Amino acid sequence: MPSQPIAELSRPIWPYIQIARPDHWFKNVFMLLGVLLAFFYEPSSFAWGSVPSLMLALVATCLIASSNYVINELLDAPYDRLHPVKKSRPAASGLVQTNVALIEWFLLGVVGMWVAFLINSYFAATTLVFWVSGIAYNVRPIRTKELPYLDVLSESLNNPIRLFLGWFALIPNQLPPLSLTLGYWMVGAFFMATKRFAEYRKIGDKNQAAAYRKSFSYYDENRLLVSMFYYATAFALLMGIFIVRYHIELILLVPVAAGFVAYYLRIGLQPDSPVQNPEKLCRDPKFLAYMLMSSALFVILIFTHIPVMYDLFNIEPTSVNPLWTLGNG
Where are the alpha helices (H) located in the chain, listed in sequence order? Predict the structure, then answer.
């Protein structure tokens, strides 16, 4: 039997790889905050012995995320056909068989849960929440993606879920700070609402937008802008609570973080904004540089102790030992 080119052999499989969206796995970087918090609260977890758990955690999270992407693309296919760009997705283009995609969704979820149970029960429970949230977001009769505001809040819930996944991979018997968890949710909601705003403007026709996404029958540009302002304000207030309560050194990050939110908003207000596709946005060298700089500053500050700041703001320092101390303690 003559050998066929690899491309020819992989052609029937490729659409099923596409709907699992491995190119979106970069979003699991949001687990990193949970990992950093775990290192902050339990410095002993910063060791080579933690690497296997972290690797398994990443594998489990990627598999569950792909399972959610599969069901998302499969059930969104009729609506994606009404979108100027998403109509070319594999499921919308008719390149995917429903029964095969459902098997793929199930297997990715089951294997992801199996890997999660290898870590610990807390991580596995959070992984199950991650999987169920994907079902609630996509599957009727709930299908939260069709409900105004709840569509944004339910999808951005993946942010605190990923924070918990990073945390529980290392610390299975405690919860991370609630203020930071809620703040992480709100900044995710801001990003998601900005994406909705950009999508709404891209489509340019309310009836077509509503046919593509049911929540757009309620939204307009003003409502989306107001929601973006609300989420950004809630994020700022919650982060302020976390900074004052746990680590005042992070107040030095505030101008940079505020600049990042403003920069993201500026990009989101552009015509045909790239925030509609975050994987493309991360290819913008200026945005990527700002994001990496902000992240690096956060990492440095959270592991640094500056005693004079506690005197200046009249706040008792945390009992957690930092990696570095600047000035006299």
Answer: 6-10, 14-19, 31-41, 51-80, 98-117, 121-138, 150-156, 158-168, 178-203, 206-212, 221-246, 254-268, 278-281, 285-302, 307-313
d(CA 24, CA 141): 27
Residues comprising the chain, all counted:
329
Torsion of CA 270, 276, 277, 280, to 10 degrees: 0
CA dihedral 55, 57, 59, 62 (to 10 degrees): -140
* Residue 194 near residue 270 (C-beta atoms within 8 A): no
Over 50: is that where the pLDDT of 9 sits? no
Task: Indicate where the chain has its CATH 1.10.357.140 domain(s).
Answer: 7-173
How many angstroms separate the CA atoms of 94 and 88, rounded? 9
pLDDT tens digits, 78-124? 888 887 778 888 888 888 899 999 999 999 999 999 999 999 999 99
- Among 108, 74, 71, which Cα is nearest to 94's? 74
Nearest to 165 by CA among 53, 57, 259, 276: 57
∠ at Cα 115 (113, 116), nearest 5°?
Answer: 60
How distant is the alpha carbon of residue 165 from its chain centre?
12
Tell me which of 1.10.357.140, 3.40.50.300, 2.60.40.10, 3.40.50.1820 is the CATH number of domain 7-173.
1.10.357.140
